[in-house]
Amino acid sequence: MRRRSIRRKLPVLIVAFFFILYVDFQLSTSSHPKVSVAPAKGPPRDPAPSRGPPPSEGAPRAAALTLEDVYVAVKTTGRFHRTRLALLLATWISRIKAHTFIFTDVEDEELQSNGYNMVVTGCQSDHSQQALSCKMSAEYDGFMASNHRWFCHVDDDNYVNAEALLALLSTFPQDADIYVGKPSLDKPITAHELLEGNATREVRFWFATGGAGFCLSRRLAEKMAPWASGPRFERTSATIRLPDDCTVGFIVEKRLGISMVHCPLFHSHLENLLLVSRRSILHQVTLSYGMFENKMNSIEVKGGFSKADDPSRFKTVHCLLYPFTSWCP
Q: Rg for the chain (alpha carbons), in Å?
């Protein structure tokens, strides 16, 4: 009799079990939405990250962000003016020329006569810590002297998708402390900060690699001034003996206690660019290219240019984004 009773109840129990699973699934998926940009994970920091006070009721809202609000700094050097930089001038810089600023180490009358915003830094032309930090210092000071709302740094081997950049920055509160980019490491970097008396202490922090590009909100950039304005940036860089992008991360995370926002939409030549999905290419904020083991490391995308004519694939991407460009096939 007991067996018959159990057999009769078994279908009901099975249905009830799956119904509970279904309800639990619905609750879990509705209460934890997925986000494409997430704050960096890591140990708690002191002080706690500051994102600004919530807006009070009836307070006027900030004007919608536009591309004209974004100060784009491109770091380059004289020997790349006719190669790497020329490719950028012909593609994405042509779309946002007025608020793109080119930081270099030599005069270039041709570029200046064509109306480009050239900043000759007086920094060394090599790839040393001192030279890189010198240029980043100039970029920071240039932004602070402007009235732009966002500072974005890229290298001369980056393609910037201006509309995707604007869409990303528009997702953040415009009066918050935002440092967004992509790390080149899978864990925080470890450095040894120089203290008085030649003592050192170990510090760990995330930083956004400059080779992929990164952005800072004005509110955060202003808070960085005690360690970044004028000669202070190079001094701060010297205390940790690391280059420009690491120094930015050190100031933001260790001096100010504000967490970097990790974003997968930035890309550098340090990663395998073939892994960037073809369907997602036109939604990425930055792209890059470079040589790796004597092979071109670039995205895979089909278009009107062959790989021989467009090894970086920047022209192809540009023509997919802006098909009515005069030189597009």
A: 24
